[in-house]
Description:
Layout: H1 14-37, H2 42-60, H3 68-100, H4 102-105, H5 108-122, H6 126-137, H7 141-165, H8 169-177, H9 182-216, H10 225-233, H11 237-265
Amino acid sequence: xxxxxxxxxxxxxxxxxxxxxxxxxxxxxxxxxxxxxxxxxxxxxxxxxxxxxxxxxxxxxxxxxxxxxxxxxxxxxxxxxxxxxxxxxxxxxxxxxxxxxxxxxxxxxxxxxxxxxxxxxxxxxxxxxxxxxxxxxxxxxxxxxxxxxxxxxxxxxxxxxxxxxxxxxxxxxxxxxxxxxxxxxxxxxxxxxxxxxxxxxxxxxxxxxxxxxxxxxxxxxxxxxxxxxxxxxxxxxxxxxxxxxxxxxxxxxxxxxxxxxxxxxx
Length: 266
């Protein structure tokens, strides 16, 4: 039986060692500077954590089952907010993704504009968008849907553009050489290549949006976040425990189902 041995590792040069040391020291300095810059009374924080641990944790693990009906309705509303927002984002991101893709726009300027729009959208956290839409349309679930839709459009648009840029352009070029028009090349040369990954990314984004929509109610955008806010204000940790349990169960189920769907698609 033949035996194979790996080639010996090349020794690092002095320059690489110095470079690695500088990078390590720079990272360590940033961490040290960050912790020193935080104005926290660590002794007081630890004392409060220890004293509250014996009060809050036991009540979190003793859910208030009398609130199951209300929590269930709010969880359903949260999932529906995430679904509606994700569905809107999956549609809105398609033209932006094509605009940002270099091989589709045929213009560096248009591609740059598309990428800039997507970057600008991604710069706003979902909670900030929720605050803006609550002011615009009022404190209701529609504000949460709009916040999820706009926030998810930026990320999905970026992912879609990368998918479009990675397609096999030889198929499109062959169709063009055989006299196909733009519509035929789009529907028969481009879309069949991108649909599986588009759907996979949209489903994955829905998973993320379920988690994100869980906190949007804190600013009045509907969903379970409103109950989380009231439970925290009233120190009702038994209700908070039930809410956390419901979120864990729902997110786990959605993750499991969406993972199976993505495996079948891709």
